[in-house]
Amino acid sequence: MSGDRVLEGLPQEVQPLLRAYLKRVVPSLGAALESLVLYGSAVRGEFVRGRSNVNLLLVVANLDGEALRKLAKLHARWKREQVVALLFTPAELQRWATSFPLEFGELKEGHRLLAGRDLLPTIRLDGGVTSELIGREAKANLLRLRQRYVEGGATGEAALILLSLSMTGLAPCFRGWLRLRDRPIPAKTEQQIEEIGRSLSIDSKPLLEAWDLRCGRISPGPVEVPRLFDRYLTAVEELVRRLEAAPA
């Protein structure tokens, strides 16, 4: 399949980047390349230039020191283009999927094969996604939010960065929760947030504000940033409490 063919339907902003990446990286890896998959916002139709990463899953035959040094050279020019690659060997995929079913569930359900063979359909999510797992992920997100805000000096700059990071990290939890409850998963993340708000009876407005910030739709000033952070923090704390109280 040609490079242009595999890129059909993807956001116009990422197609030239991926075309150049495929032209450079695929021949360089040669037979060592097992699979190259695109996932995340570029596949879900929520890519925002300058804000979203281009998320890749790169499966290669081995990842010893020599292989990592080769990959580092290949990826040096792509770092500034926000290309981020998860690196695995074929044998590692199943083992890691068992440990991280939420993340690999996202990968299985929303990805685009760019080169090699698609290994994700063969992955089993033993134990699958549970209410306990989603609650644990949300708690870890809250702990990181608090810790990194303090480490960042509780500045407005730290708040802006952390709001986007935290919201991006919570989005798979929302989709996992809806999937677990056999509820339809709306196409857009903001619709998923609204559905989570209704499902758990929480105020979804601060979560929506953080998503709008992440997507570049709002630009709060220095006075509003701390208020937005406080509203978001309260909303995540309530989210965690509701997830803890929800039936398994």
Count of DSSP-assigned helices: 11
| 3D shape | globular
The CATH topology of the largest domain: Beta Polymerase, domain 2
The residue ranges in which pLDDT falls below 50 over 5 or more consecutive positions are none
Query: What is the subunit arrangement here?
Result: single chain
Radius of gyration: 19 Å
The CATH architecture designation of the largest domain is: 2-Layer Sandwich
Helix fraction? Answer: 55-70%
Helix/strand-derived category reads: alpha+beta
Percent of residues in β-strands: 5-15%
Give a topology summary.
Blueprint: H1 3-6, H2 15-29, E1 33-39, H3 41-44, E2 54-60, H4 65-75, E3 83-88, H5 90-99, H6 101-109, E4 111-116, H7 131-151, H8 156-180, H9 189-200, H10 205-214, H11 224-245
Parallel strand pairs: 2-3
Antiparallel strand pairs: 1-2, 1-4
Keywords:
248 residues, alpha+beta, Beta Polymerase, domain 2, Four Helix Bundle (Hemerythrin (Met), subunit A), 2 domains, four-stranded mixed sheet, 4 strands, 58% helix, 10% strand, globular
Give a written overview of the molecule:
- This protein has 248 residues and is α+β, with helices and mostly antiparallel strands.
- The chain has two domains: 3-122, 2-Layer Sandwich (Beta Polymerase, domain 2), CATH 3.30.460; 131-245, Up-down Bundle (Four Helix Bundle (Hemerythrin (Met), subunit A)), CATH 1.20.120.
- It has eleven helices and four strands, in the order ααβαβαβααβααααα.
- It has helices at 3-6, 15-29, 41-44, 65-75, 90-99, 101-109, 131-151, 156-180, 189-200, 205-214, 224-245, and strands at 33-39, 54-60, 83-88, 111-116.
- A four-stranded mixed sheet has the order 3-2-1-4.
- β2 (54-60), α4 and β3 (83-88) form a beta-alpha-beta unit.
- α8 packs across α9 (189-200).
- It is globular and about 50 Å long.
- The N and C termini lie far apart (44 Å).
- This is Polymerase nucleotidyl transferase domain-containing protein.
- InterPro entries: NT_sf.
